[in-house]
Write a structure and sequence with these properties.
By secondary structure, the protein is mostly helical. The chain has one domain. Strands 1-5 form a two-stranded antiparallel ribbon. Strands 2-6 form a two-stranded antiparallel ribbon. A two-stranded antiparallel sheet has the order 3-4. A hairpin with a 3-residue loop joins strand 3 and strand 4. Helix 1 packs antiparallel against helix 6 and helix 3 crosses helix 7. The longest helix is centred in the first third of the chain and has 22 residues. 30% of the residues are buried.
């Protein structure tokens, strides 16, 4: 398996996610309510009994790159939110982490998802407010996207990094910048 540089991997990840997003938008999203017109914007992202989105290290790096465009103060607030989320929901890095649920620290009221356009995780791309179950995108498409993401991650970082909840990765990638400052 050919190793990828971080820069090349991020470029490939962006292409992959853009293609997946377009596929979902064209084939499924027309049956969903728009997030912009939702009467309870962010309810799905902040539902601590529902959200269990996991990402790879590569996706965490992509998210960090996007968030890095924000002011240091705003990044610090996101780090603190992520840290509070890890503590509040007792999120772990081992065991069955997919059983853990949390409110997403990347959602900001009045703004929405802070990485919506450039680093949105595959499950979030798949998710929308569908009236009928038959309108939902089949899970196999998300699984295919996640398998491709995992291959990119392995080609970049090897097998040492696993899928972890978003807040756990955020704390990991921001810790050296904001921990104990």
């Amino acid at each position: 398996m050919k190793t990828l540089t971080g820069t090349k991997a991020l470029t490939e990840l962006k292409k992959l996610k853009t293609a997946y997003c377009e596929f979902i938008k064209i084939n499924y999203e027309y049956n969903a309510k728009s997030c912009l017109t939702c009467e309870t914007q962010g309810a799905c992202c902040l539902d601590a009994h529902f959200v269990n989105v996991h990402i790879t290290k590569l996706e965490a790096v992509a998210i960090r790159k996007i968030l890095g465009q924000l002011s240091e103060e705003k990044q610090r607030r996101i780090f603190e939110r992520a840290k509070e989320t890890v503590e509040k929901y007792d999120l772990k890095t081992s065991g069955d982490t997919f059983e853990q649920t949390f409110a997403c620290p990347l959602f900001e009221k009045g703004v929405g998802c802070l990485v919506h356009s450039d680093a949105k995780p595959a499950p979030c791309i798949s998710h929308a407010c569908y009236e009928k179950e038959e309108d939902l995108p089949p899970e196999k498409f998300q699984e295919q996207a996640e398998n491709r993401i995992e291959r990119l991650n392995k080609r970049t970082y090897g097998n040492a990094f696993s899928w972890l909840p978003i807040p756990v990765w955020l704390v990991n990638i921001y810790a050296k910048d904001f921990e104990d400052k």
